[in-house]
Design goal:
- The protein has 410 residues and is an alpha/beta fold.
- It contains eight helices and 28 strands.
- It folds into four domains: 157 residues, 3-Layer(aba) Sandwich (Molybdenum Cofactor Biosythetic Enzyme, Chain A); 46 residues, Molybdopterin biosynthesis moea protein, domain 2 (Alpha-Beta Complex), CATH 3.90.105; 86 residues, Molybdopterin biosynthesis moea protein, domain 3 (Molybdopterin biosynthesis moeA protein, domain 3); 84 residues, Beta-clip.
- It has a six-stranded mixed beta sheet with strand order 7-4-6-5-9-8, with no helix packed on it. It has a six-stranded mixed beta sheet with strand order 16-13-17-21-20-18, sandwiched between helices. It has a five-stranded mixed barrel with strand order 22-25-24-26-28.
- The protein is elongated and about 95 Å long.
């Protein structure tokens, strides 16, 4: 049986980006840039004023206060052709307007006093080149401003737009098909009778796909017969990736692996030394990843977190696909009955000073969904640790979106 680390290594070695597409800049936020971006021109493209004020010659301003004659006006968007600052003169200028010939400083309007429409008094000492944004000061033409692999945020959007890019080349968001299996499942809208279970796995997995940034495609329920499995899994295999839940163990009605093999899926592993999630399987069909997850809701979500989410991030071009691990001190004793496997425990986290503290979020049976609501993170307990005492350090990583705690952990 594969170890936790071996299984994840096999998955990531067989995953590549899903392709490149051009999207408008707003839709590119959160996506991964697929190509380097080189500046086509200098930024700023010309010397311009950083303040509303007056463009002056430093040579005229040795002693303050000094009085200068105002000979021109340059608003933002104006051309400076034919405008210059002559000795003893100043040109009124607005933020972003080009610096006129002869000027080597800008004096902010609040440091001046207009004595008339044609004269201005400078009240503060002036420094050379003050309040001027110089051509190429921010970015030089030909400079690489963004590298492939950059996650696009509003600052990246601003830079792309500043250089005239209406579209951004980004890695494509894969379409991920989700199939649940079992005769016992019913769809939402009905109250389950004895022996029936509402099909929550499909929605939780689709939500996890979306949270990771990919596009979920809900296929529905495959009933416990080969024909239903072939139909639903066939639809699922048309997507970029397929995720199934339940039907992956060794029972009489566990048909997922059998039917997938009949449909040409090459199984790369089945069963992993983890708790929960031991029956998880992974395969490929024409390069498309196929993940077969256990049916218990907790096992399904945790194996998605540890195996599927990193693969989807890799498909979308991310370089950091495994959540960062950090240390927390246990507040509870942990008794691990099956210590031959890596245990993935649902835990609460709290911060006290500079340290994080972990406590069990509830009973760890895989059918107890409420423990997932209370869990901020996963504690990874290595094999061989049948008992860990309160006060010991444990490796943890966040589960889902806990932005407040993530920021504190950095």
């Amino acid at each position: 049986m594969l170890s936790f680390e071996q299984a994840r290594k096999i998955i990531l070695e067989n995953i590549s980006p899903a392709g490149i597409e051009l999207v408008n800049l707003v839709d590119a936020v959160g996506r991964v840039l697929a190509e380097d971006v080189v500046a086509p021109w200098d930024m700023p493209l010309w010397d311009n004023s950083a303040m509303d004020g007056y463009a002056v010659r430093l040579a005229d301003c040795g002693n303050v206060p000094c009085k200068l004659r105002v000979t021109g006006y340059l608003p933002a968007g104006a051309q400076a052709d034919g405008v210059s600052v002559k000795p003893g003169c100043a040109v009124k200028i607005m933020t972003g307007a080009p610096i006129p010939a002869g000027a080597d400083a800008v004096v902010p309007v609040e440091e001046t006093e207009e004595t008339s429409g044609e004269q201005v008094v400078l009240k503060e000492t002036i420094k050379p080149r003050q309040h001027i944004r110089f051509c190429g000061e921010d970015v030089s033409a030909g400079e690489q401003v963004m590298a492939a692999g950059t996650i696009i945020r509003p600052p990246e959007v601003s830079m792309l737009a500043s250089f005239g890019h209406a579209l951004a080349p980004v890695y494509r968001r894969p379409v991920v098909a989700v199939v649940s299996t079992g005769d016992e499942l019913i769809e939402l809208g009905r109250t389950p009778a004895t022996g029936e279970i509402v099909n929550s796995n499909t929605l939780s997995l689709a939500a996890a796909v979306r949270e990771a940034g990919a596009i979920p495609r809900i296929i529905g329920i495959a009933r416990d017969n080969r024909e239903s499995h072939r139909v639903k899994l066939g639809y699922g295999l048309q997507a970029d990736a397929l995720v199934t839940s339940a039907g992956v163990s060794a029972g009489d009605r566990d048909l997922v692996r059998i039917v997938l093999e009949e449909m040409g899926v090459k199984q790369l592993f089945w069963k992993v030394g983890i708790k929960p999630g031991k029956p998880a399987a992974f395969g490929l069909k024409d390069g498309k990843p196929v993940f077969s997850l256990p049916g218990n809701p907790v096992s399904s979500m945790i194996t998605f977190e540890e195996f599927v989410r990193p693969a989807l991030l890799r498909m979308m071009g991310h370089s950091q696909v495994i959540r960062p691990t950090f240390k927390a001190l246990l507040l509870d004793d942990i008794k691990n009955k099956e210590s031959d496997r890596t245990s993935l425990l649902r835990i609460r986290l709290e911060r006290r000073g500079e340290r994080f503290y972990a406590s069990i979020s509830g009973k760890q049976q895989t059918g107890l969904l409420k423990t997932m609501l209370n869990a901020a993170a996963i504690a990874v307990i290595p094999p061989g640790r049948g008992f860990m005492a309160a006060g010991e350090e444990v490796d943890v990583h966040f589960f889902g979106s806990h932005i407040d705690l993530v920021e504190e952990a950095r």
